[in-house]
Amino acid sequence: MFTIPLGNLPLIKKGDNLGKIISTALKSKQIYLTSGDIVVVTEKIVSKAEGRVINLKTILPTNMAYELSGITGKDPRLVELILRESQEILRAGNNFIISLTNQGLICANAGIDQSNVKPHHAKLLPINSDKSALNIKCILEKKFRVDLGVIIIDSVGRPFRHGSVGLALGCSGITPLLDLRGEKDIYRNELLVTQVAIADCLASTANIIMGEAAEKIPVVIIRGLNYKGEGQASDLLRSKTEDLFR
Amino acid sequence: MFTIPLGNLPLIKKGDNLGKIISTALKSKQIYLTSGDIVVVTEKIVSKAEGRVINLKTILPTNMAYELSGITGKDPRLVELILRESQEILRAGNNFIISLTNQGLICANAGIDQSNVKPHHAKLLPINSDKSALNIKCILEKKFRVDLGVIIIDSVGRPFRHGSVGLALGCSGITPLLDLRGEKDIYRNELLVTQVAIADCLASTANIIMGEAAEKIPVVIIRGLNYKGEGQASDLLRSKTEDLFR
Lengths: 246, 246
What we know:
The structure is a homodimer.
Chain A: E1 2-6, H1 18-28, E2 38-42, H2 43-49, E3 53-55, H3 63-72, H4 76-84, E4 86-93, E5 96-101, E6 106-108, E7 121-123, H5 129-144, E8 149-156, E9 165-172, E10 178-179, E11 195-196, H6 198-210, E12 219-223
Parallel strand pairs in A: 2-8
Antiparallel strand pairs in A: 1-12, 2-12, 3-7, 4-5, 5-6, 8-9, 10-11
Helix pairs in contact in A: 1-5, 3-4
């Protein structure tokens, strides 16, 4: 496996066709995609292209947002956005809100980001990252006449351990969860731990290359693996009843 | 960045010198380590070399182990080992025990594994994976006359999401947590999410190559990054008071 970073994209703005922009950038660097390549894209540019950057001055907080703002010390307009983007608030305290987003991700601030946006603006996560991945995949496959996988990722904190890792918010053309049930170990016993979160591991691989300032290298090509398949990023989500730590 | 898998090692047994075995295997394949390479090793072979495979017939369960065996349906001798390897049991139920291990990892069964060991045996995690990483590093650095990073990893489940990802149990010669405080975004604002769990992201990268049957490819070389530094895997552990999900 090896990775090809793609940096120096133009600043992405609402309405941009990301597939086309990535294709142009690749060709300008004489990088040609081949079948089996996995194109990993940070959600940061997907959100921008999809117009998910909000001017906080347009947001009128509800009473609930003011209340949660009082608990957390966060801007009530930001809290209002977090509430709109969440199904459920799981934890809140001094300067933090952990929630279950409308898309099923558990993270801080509903994934809303104020880095790399203009002052008084906030960037929401893409509405449907699987669909965003499919859109990019279709365009790149047509431009390069190949079969690809595409993953939309974010860098996310987690319980128990410091530091963020990459998580797959959306994917297309790959199997997010590799099922090893039925495989045998070296003593021919069936393996018990049977699922590897391939899409999240690939997201963490790209996360190393992107770093936290993912707008500088917003796209990483991962080449030399064979994880073509079907599935969506929500295959990775545990339901509440399956989860011991909610 | 690219990865070089190293498979077909001899079966590892107690007392084996892993650094020497890895070095011999690399040289026999004409793979020469270069400075900056990160050598990722599955804990499965580290534990075996360190004699951490236990014959369950030698284990006498305590009353507490019998009690927890009643709750979980697990073999009381295995439960006894889990208790010995744990500081604290966090969750237990039908066929599962989640604990905080003596080393500070939160995972199922205290990381005790019955795959790839003889019947009626169980394999514990290494006692001190940072030290194991340092030992392997010293031997490989001397053999190849280079500066290396070494990470000992396991494939571990997690809250909220299905599938296992790679986690760093021990490391030497690399910075496990990349601190970006003070770095600026493209609008020159300081970044807020400031730490990337590089060692865990590298562990997940190797996890893709190793798969769950990590004894077939127990070592992966990651080349082309620059994460030389100091630190230990425990830098990645949140203390209980810093953790919202315990």
